[in-house]
Inverse folding.
């Protein structure tokens, strides 16, 4: 089973301010609660997320290798994360609005061990709320 979610956030901030946050792989990782730690190669943007999922078949952190596979500044970024327990694709598209900007978020999670999809089915909305909160804090202080 695959979990898909699409959420749209509206900001009273210019698209460039939203881009500064969403295009940064470290900022994206830091806003996700199950990412215990991460490393990012500043030159390539490739990184490793160490993810702890509270499911029976995953006893330690899962190492998720991530990379941005599409970047169109300041409008669009897409990343892919791969590991032995899951594959995640995240896509963020920024559109200007009359009062600021709109961020369209699309995520697809494919579990490779039992329980992964169920976990994300129950928790992906919360993780997106975490992302939205972190992004709002960043654009409000910019």
């Amino acid at each position: 089973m695959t979990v898909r979610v699409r959420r749209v956030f509206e900001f009273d901030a210019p698209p460039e301010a939203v881009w500064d946050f969403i295009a940064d792989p470290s900022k994206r990782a830091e806003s996700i609660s199950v990412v215990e730690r991460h490393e990012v190669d500043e030159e390539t943007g490739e990184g490793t997320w160490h993810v702890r999922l509270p499911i029976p078949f995953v006893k330690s952190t899962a190492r998720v290798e991530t990379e941005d596979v599409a970047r169109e500044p300041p409008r669009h970024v897409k990343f892919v994360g791969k590991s032995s327990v899951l594959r995640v694709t995240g896509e963020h598209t920024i559109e200007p609005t009359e009062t600021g900007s709109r961020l369209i978020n699309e995520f697809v999670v494919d579990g490779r061990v039992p329980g992964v999809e169920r976990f994300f089915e129950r928790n992906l909305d919360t993780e997106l709320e975490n992302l939205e909160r972190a992004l709002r804090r960043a654009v409000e202080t910019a």
Observations:
- The chain has three helices and seven strands.
- Residues 68 and 79 are 4 Å apart (CA to CA).
- The mean pLDDT is 92.
